[in-house]
């Protein structure tokens, strides 16, 4: 993806949803591990995307909608106050709880200035360089790559034959070690 990705309808409906659906349909997972790095949020110190907290949460909500057991992990995110907001919001979505837009007072309240809300304006600071054509090309490439796989990949478990475990390795003599019997005279 190019810099400046937003959670616009173009990006979400034309890329994220169809790709995730295709991947889930192809792999048919019995569980999903979803890594939610918050460095894709707008205004992140190191990230180069422009997702809002709601947009990030929409992605989590979509994956949750498959009703497949889900393990959600944190990840990157370098504007800590927005990472905390994002993960709080996503946790509320995952447990189906509505939470207040206003942040409760705590010893860390001042860190969330000046707005003290769950969904601050994370204004676009990087121009979105992801055209519809570019996103369509990414989607098509992913779909083509999935078609090249014959089946849902897996790692088969095989028994290790016992004779391999009891194999006695005998070291051969090092050809560089020359004993007295190998010496010769000129």
UniProtKB/TrEMBL annotation:
Protein name: Histone deacetylase domain-containing protein
Domain Histone deacetylase: 11-92
Pfam families: Hist_deacetyl
Region (Disordered): 166-186
């Amino acid at each position: 993806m190019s810099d400046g990705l937003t959670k616009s309808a173009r990006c979400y409906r034309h890329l994220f949803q169809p790709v995730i659906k295709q991947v889930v349909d192809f792999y048919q997972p019995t569980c999903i591990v979803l890594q939610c790095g918050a460095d894709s949020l707008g205004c992140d110190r190191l990230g180069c995307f422009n997702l809002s907290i709601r947009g990030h949460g929409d992605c989590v909500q979509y994956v949750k909608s498959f009703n497949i057991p889900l393990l959600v992990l944190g990840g990157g995110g370098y504007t800590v106050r927005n990472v905390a907001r994002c993960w709080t919001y996503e946790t509320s979505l995952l447990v189906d709880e509505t939470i207040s837009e206003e942040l409760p007072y705590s010893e860390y309240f001042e860190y969330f200035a000046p707005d003290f809300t769950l969904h601050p304006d994370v204004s676009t600071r990087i121009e979105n360089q992801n055209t519809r054509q570019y996103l369509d090309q990414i989607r098509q490439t992913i779909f083509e790559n999935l078609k090249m796989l014959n089946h849902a990949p897996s790692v088969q478990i095989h028994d290790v034959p016992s004779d391999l475990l009891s194999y006695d390795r005998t070291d051969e003599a090092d050809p560089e070690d020359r004993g007295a019997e190998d010496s010769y005279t000129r």
